[in-house]
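Usage

Read records sequentially. Each one opens with the input sequence:
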Amino acid sequence: MLSQVKDYLSPTRTALIVWDVQEALVASIFNREDFLRKTIELVDAARMREISIFYTKITPLPEKFESKIRLIMWRGKRFEPGDIVKEIYPREGDVVLNKNTASIFVGTNFEYMARNAALSSLVFTGIATEMGVESSARHALNLGFLPVVAKEAVSSSDKEAHLRSLANMGKLMPVLSNEEILTVWG
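and closes with the structure output:
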C-alpha cells in the first residue's frame, strides 16, 4: 500500500486535517491519552515538514437556522463542543475552519483552498471516526483527492463504531499507522 500512495503523500501536495478536536469531544473518547499522543505526533511532524494543517470546529448555527433534523436528533439539547484542546491548539499559519456539517467540503472554502494550493492528498485525524472523519474522507475521495486516515489519530466515544468505520474506509482508501505516514513523509 505504501509504495502505491508514496508519490501522492508528498509533503508539498498533502494537508493534515485535524477534525473537531474540541474539549467536549476529546473528553468523551475511549482512548484519550493515546489519541492525543498520536495526533500531536502527526501535527508536530507536519509542522516540521511545512505541511498545511487545517483544523475544523463544530460551530452550531443559531437555533432558528439549524437543520430541523439535527434539532430532532439532538433531542432539543444544544451541543456546545468547546474550543480546540490546548494540547493540539492551532498555531500561526494553521487554518481553522468553522463548519456546521459532517463534511469539510460543505459550507467552507476548504476545497477552493486545497485546489489553489495544489493539494492532492488529505491526511485525516480527529473525532469522530464514524461521523465527520468518515464523511469528509468519503467526500474527498468523490472529489478526486486521496484521503488517508491516520488510524491511530482518530477516535470516537463509540469504540465499536470507530472500529467498523476504520474497516469500511480501509476498503476504499488508505488507513495507515503514524509510522507508515511518517515513513512516506521522510
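Summary fields computed downstream for this record:
- The first strand starts at residue 14 and ends at 19.
- Strands lie at 14-19, 52-58, 95-99, 121-127, 146-155, 175-176.
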